[in-house]
Every structure is written in C-alpha cells, then in structure tokens.
Amino acid sequence: MKVRVKTDMCEGHGKCEKAAPELFKLGDDDVSIVLIEGDIPKDLEEKAERAYRLCPRQAIELIP
C-alpha cells in the first residue's frame, strides 16, 4: 500500500501526524508530508488507515 496527501485539500489539522507519526509530518506550510516513499511497511498499514479515517478534509489517499 502507498499513501499520498492531496496537498490542495490538506488544511494542516495534523490528525494524520498524531495517528501515524512514522508516516506523516506537517511541513512548514502546515501541509502534511508523507515520510515514506513507495510502499509502506505492513506493520504501518493500520496506522495509515486510521489517519485516512481521521482526516477531516479527506486529503489522504490510500493506494493498494
């Protein structure tokens, strides 16, 4: 699974970073950045799904 942030939709609420700090970080412009390029480790998939569900703007995309 891959994770992507739709930067045009992200408002910097930071819920993804709280749910999965291994995967997300708020940048200087308060837009989330994905910290892992390519496929994420299997043990982080549940955290990625949680971040996806918590995003109030639906700016996170999970790609199988």
Describe the structure.
- The chain has two helices and four strands.
- It is 23% helix and 22% strand.
- The chain has helices at 15-19, 45-54; strands at 2-5, 24-26, 32-34, 60-63.
- The model has no long low-confidence stretch (mean pLDDT 97).
- A hairpin with a 5-residue loop joins strand 2 and strand 3.
- It is of the alpha+beta class and 64 residues long.
- The strands form two sheets. It has a two-stranded antiparallel ribbon. The protein has a two-stranded antiparallel sheet with strand order 2-3.
Structural class of the helix and strand makeup? alpha+beta
Q: What oligomeric state do the depicted chains represent? A: single chain
| Cα-to-Cα separation, first versus last residue | 4 Å
β-sheet strand percentage: 15-25%
- Individual helix count: 2
- Major β-sheet profile: 2 strands, antiparallel
- Please state the overall shape, judged from the principal axes of the Cα atoms: globular
Q: SSE order, as H and E?
A: EHEEHE
Radius of gyration: 10 Å
Which percent range fits the helix content? 10-25%
Question: What is the mean pLDDT?
Answer: 97
Regions with little confidence, pLDDT below 50 for 5+ residues? none
**How are the strands of the biggest sheet laid out side by side?**
1-4
Number of strands: 4
